[in-house]
Amino acid sequence: MDRLKAIEVDITVELGATDMPIHHLLRMGRGAVIELDATEHDPLKIYANNTLVAIGEIKIDDGQLSVDITEKIVRHK
Fold first, then answer.
1. Can you give the CATH number for the domain in which 61 is found?
2. What is the pLDDT of residue 48?
3. Which pLDDT value is given to residue 34?
4. DSSP 8-class letter at 50
5. Which residues of 5-23 are buried (b: 16+ CB within 10 A; e: fewer)?
6. Beta bridge partners of 57
7. How far is CA 35 from its chain centroid?
8. How many independent structural domains does the chain possess?
């Protein structure tokens, strides 16, 4: 079990996405807003090492932001 504790996994939570020209991105400064193709109620995609592993939703409790996993993605070989 100690060997498993040493393994690092990169977790990414995707809130949404958008397409924009690179020149718009380069002109953005502090406080810029990027509109995404999702709403606050849409499910989040959760990736482990760039592989989709779960779907979740945002939870806010006493000012703490967290992600609840609502569905695990099972990959069949």
1. 2.30.330.10
2. 95
3. 93
4. T
5. eeeeeeeeeeeeeeeeeee
6. 68
7. 15
8. 1
